[in-house]
Specification:
Elements: E1 3-13, E2 26-35, H1 39-44, H2 53-66, H3 72-86, E3 91-99, E4 107-115
Bound molecules: the ligand Nc1nc2c(c(=O)[nH]1)N=C([C@H](O)[C@@H](O)CO)CN2.
Amino acid sequence: MDKVFIEALEVDALIGIYDWERRIRQTLVFDIEMAFDNRVPAASDAIEDTLNYKDVSRRVVDYVSQSGFGLVETLAERVAEIILDEFGVSQVRLKLSKPGAVRGARAVGVIIERSAGRAPEGISGLL
Ligand SMILES: Nc1nc2c(c(=O)[nH]1)N=C([C@H](O)[C@@H](O)CO)CN2
């Protein structure tokens, strides 16, 4: 399947589990890959036929900059949900990096892959 991607999208947000983290904003970095059949816009050369990476980026920035979760896991899940639900994407791979959170590491974070449809058996009530 073709992809549309957004690489190294930086957003300042309230994130983290420690008291000191609740008083500052930290820069988060998103790498996002979205399944999309790019043959359609390639044939029409029309922006309306694309999965518009500018629209997705703007929505992610708006949401993340107003969020305030403790865990990167929670934020990654919510952003993946928005992309699947609001942009008609069938599959998304999302890497959320928190640079400088751990001394000695350039970045830490999570990578998730989600598909449109039901949550796995057993955790649907939690999500
Ligand atoms: N798997 C995770 N581990 C940790 C997280 C997290 O969100 N997911 N968060 C922290 C702290 O907020 C840390 O980033 C502060 O340096 C620790 N571990």
